């Protein structure tokens, strides 16, 4: 790994999207920074007149890969959708909610748009028409994390009271329900039936929804985790609120590598081709070339 560029912005990074031509960075004051491939700023544009900033580690801001559709949280209990290309265009602001958005997600292939709010409600919309598809049974606490299976069949919605509901979208009913020993920070599906979650206490949890049971849970992380991305078919990259990221081996269920970072607190992370884009609490975004050896960091087995 080698750091090849840094962007220095004024607010914590809420979301990052990279496509073939552009890099889009959203800061937690809901401002879009749009760059070309030469790292030249094309424009900087605030999206909404929020009365408060979004929490730096919130899961409420999402970016759709196909059309660069952006979903910012609004304190007015509704969301606004935008397309970001050569300019910003508002798509709609009519998706009203009964409370503030705490988590949002675009499904695989961008078929669905999913919103989880502070009242514990989770709503599924068609991404193309923005019409309601399903509403999950309300949870007893706010929805803080969402994840969807590769086939768009199963949706995980975790609540702050440590309860987790897995919903079968194809059958419009609950698949399973379970509890974790600590609050889930983020989750992803390893395949169509196994879910990997990282918890506030540093535990890594793997739940098999076909077997209906937890198949692994261990406190592997010394720091509060923040985000998860698939690094390759062997590793899940886990970022934290500290100065470290970890490579979790999904074959052995062990941490194989710890990567020491330049700054504290990873608030957003994105991989595109051979590059990793890491956003920090201090407003920095690092572009890391993954084709180099791990000579830009201190690595420990």
What does this 3D model show about the protein?
The protein is mostly beta strands and 301 residues long. Strand 6 and strand 7 (69-71) form a beta hairpin. The chain has strands at residues 2-8, 13-18, 22-27, 31-36, 41-46, 62-63, 69-71, 78-84, 88-96, 101-106, 112-117, 122-126, 132-135, 143-148, 154-159, 163-168, 173-179, 184-189, 194-199, 203-208, 213-219, 225-230, 235-240, 244-249, 254-260, 266-272, 275-280, 284-289, 299-300. The chain has a single domain (2-300), classed as Methylamine Dehydrogenase, Chain H, CATH 2.130.10. Strands 22-23-24-25-29 form a five-stranded antiparallel β-sheet, with no helix packed on it. It has a four-stranded antiparallel β-sheet with strand order 1-28-27-26, with no helix packed on it.
Indicate the proportion of strand residues: over 45%
Report mean pLDDT, rounded to a whole number.
87
What percent of the residues sit in helical stretches (DSSP H or I)? under 10%
- Under CATH at level 1, the class stands as Mainly Beta
The coarse overall form would be: globular
Kindly report the spatial arrangement of strands forming the biggest sheet: 22-23-24-25-29
- The value of Rg in angstroms is 18 Å
For the report, how would you describe the main beta sheet? 5 strands, antiparallel
CATH architect. name: 7 Propeller
The CATH topology: Methylamine Dehydrogenase, Chain H
What string gives the helices and strands in order? EEEEEEEEEEEEEEEEEEEEEEEEEEEEE
Low-pLDDT ranges: 295-301
Count of all domains: 1
What's the CATH superfamily, by name?
YVTN repeat-like/Quinoprotein amine dehydrogenase
The number of distinct helices, counting runs of at least 4 residues, comes to: 0
Structural class: mainly beta
Q: CA-to-CA gap between the ends?
A: 16 Å
Number of strands: 29
């Amino acid at each position: 790994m080698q750091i090849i560029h840094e962007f220095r912005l004024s607010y914590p990074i809420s979301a990052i999207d990279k496509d073939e031509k552009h890099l889009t960075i959203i800061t937690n004051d809901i401002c879009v920074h749009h760059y070309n491939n030469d790292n030249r700023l094309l424009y900087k544009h605030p999206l909404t007149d929020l009365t408060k900033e979004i929490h730096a580690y919130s899961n409420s801001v999402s970016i759709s890969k196909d059309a660069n559709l952006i979903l910012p949280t609004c304190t007015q209990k509704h969301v606004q959708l935008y397309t970001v290309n050569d300019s910003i265009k508002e798509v709609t602001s009519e998706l009203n909610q009964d409370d503030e958005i705490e988590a949002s997600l675009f499904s695989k292939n961008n078929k669905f748009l999913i919103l989880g709010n502070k009242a514990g409600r989770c709503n599924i919309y068609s991404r193309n028409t923005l019409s309601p598809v399903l509403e999950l049974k309300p949870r007893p606490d706010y929805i803080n994390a969402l994840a969807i299976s590769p086939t768009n069949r199963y949706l995980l919605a975790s609540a702050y009271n440590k309860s987790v509901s897995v919903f079968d979208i194809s059958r419009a009913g609950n698949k399973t329900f379970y509890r974790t020993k600590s609050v889930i920070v983020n989750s992803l599906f390893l395949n169509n039936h196994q879910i990997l979650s990282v918890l506030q206490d540093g535990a890594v949890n793997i739940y098999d929804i076909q077997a209906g049971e937890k198949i692994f849970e261990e406190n592997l992380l010394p720091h509060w985790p923040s985000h998860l991305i698939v690094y390759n078919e062997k590793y899940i990259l886990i970022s934290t609120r500290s100065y470290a990221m970890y490579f979790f081996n999904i074959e052995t269920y062990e941490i194989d590598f710890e990567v020491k970072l330049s700054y504290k607190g990873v608030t957003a992370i994105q991989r595109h081709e051979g590059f990793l884009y890491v956003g920090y609490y201090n407003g920095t975004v690092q572009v890391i070339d993954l084709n180099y050896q791990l000579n830009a960091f201190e690595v420990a087995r």
